[in-house]
Amino acid sequence: MPNKLKTAWQAGKATVNGWAAIPSGFAAEMYSRAGWDSVTVDMQHGIQDYLSCVSCFQGMQPSGVVPMVRVPWNEPGIIGKVLDAGAYGIICPMINTEAEAKAFVQYGKYPPRGTRSNGPIRAAVYGEAGAYQTTANDEILMIPMIETKKAIDNIGAILDVPGIDAIYIGPSDLSFSLGKTPKLDVEDDEIFKIYEMLLKETGKRNIAAGIHCGVPAYAKRMIKMGFKLVTIANDVGIMLNAAKAAVTETKS
Question: Residue 59 pLDDT more than 90?
Fold first, then answer.
């Protein structure tokens, strides 16, 4: 089945991504119905494990959102397993060099373009029968996180690696790496210049740029700036903020 994010990006459209930290298929089922274009299961900083990831994918399936995963690290075992579970995109943290980017792509692609092992136990049963192995290399999105000074210094070489579909900025770690306070929704001239440089470099190569945002207003601002994938907080934060607002309003 065609990857709807890739189709949208090729048409020049921006997409809005949800972020699932809660290890619950029921929570993912409800959350995925909010209108997101994609929902990413966070296996790095969330409390998701492999089985909860599979459960979340099962919950998301009826809504038609694009299922993605942020893996914990650039490692072939977990990348292969979440792809076999049905991920249509992999966001990978701390890709800092050309060599790391090449390895990442290799782990996510079938031969001859990569070294991914064949065995798509869940992914293969969706879409046309028997077609998964012939389409996966083209439809699965490989998205390295750009979140350190080292990655910024090596950005040209990283972006030139064949098979990179997009990048994803982690503002907190990027700020940390530059000696600043880690936070989302930064207001910092130095970091905004980095964003502009990244958008220029990705644009030249027809590669999408994504970023994690804290609030909708900032996400809209990033779309206007040129980002094609914006994430808004995560399911925990949105739930907590809505609950706090409801309680505060009632008690007032």
Answer: yes
Compute the C-alpha angle 217/218/223, nearest 5°. Answer: 100
Q: How far is CA 39 from the centre of its chain?
A: 8
pLDDT of residue 128 exceeding 70: no
Which of 70-74, 109-113, 127-131, 209-213 is the least confident region? 127-131
At a CB cut-off of 8 Å and minimum separation 6, what does 239 contact? none
pLDDT tens, position by position, 4-57? 999 999 999 999 999 999 999 999 999 999 999 999 999 999 899 999 999 999
Tokens 């701390």 locate to: 94
Mean pLDDT score across all residues of the chain: 97
SS (H, E, C) 152-169: HHCHHHHHCCCCCCEEEE
* Residue among 117, 106, 183 nearest 144 (CA): 106
Residue 188 main-chain phi, psi, to 5 deg:
-145, 125
**Nearest residue to 167 via CA among 1, 9, 4, 7:** 9
CA distance 208 to 155: 14
Question: Rounded distance, CA 100 to CA 78, Å?
Answer: 16
Domain ranges across the chain: 4-251
Q: Which of 4, 33, 45, 150 is catalytic?
A: 45
Mean pLDDT of 130-143: 94
pLDDT computed for residue 127 by the predictor: 61
- Is 45 catalytic? The answer is yes
Q: Does domain 4-251 have CATH number 3.40.50.300?
A: no
Cα 95–224–178 angle (5° rounding)?
A: 35
